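call fold(seq) -> tokens
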Amino acid sequence: QVQLVESGGRLVQAGGSLRLSCAVSTGTFSSYTMGWFRQSPGNERDFVAAISWSGGSTNYAVSVKGRFTISRDNAKNTVYLQMNNLKPEDTAVYCCAAKRGRTVATIEGFYDYWGQGTQVTVSS
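ret:
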């Protein structure tokens, strides 16, 4: 069983920065593609960013490109989401997800395991 635990979410002012972490309990972390998704009240869960098993390939939603950076440390079984220049519309619960295989997918249906999420609130 693969477990994912997110941390780092909190209240921050617009223009500020946060780094989210997702610790993954598995002995084969480097074999998973990792993604971040977010969901705000009344909305569907949206893709944010994804990273390949090696970290060599990434994909971002248009709304966060240039502001957010996804990275991973395979030695620590952890994936990160650095968020800069945060906006009130970034307010959401952020979840990390893991998928088998090397496709850097943007669709949540391709992901096999999910964390519970961490709340990010951006005040104006």
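The chain has a mean pLDDT of 96.
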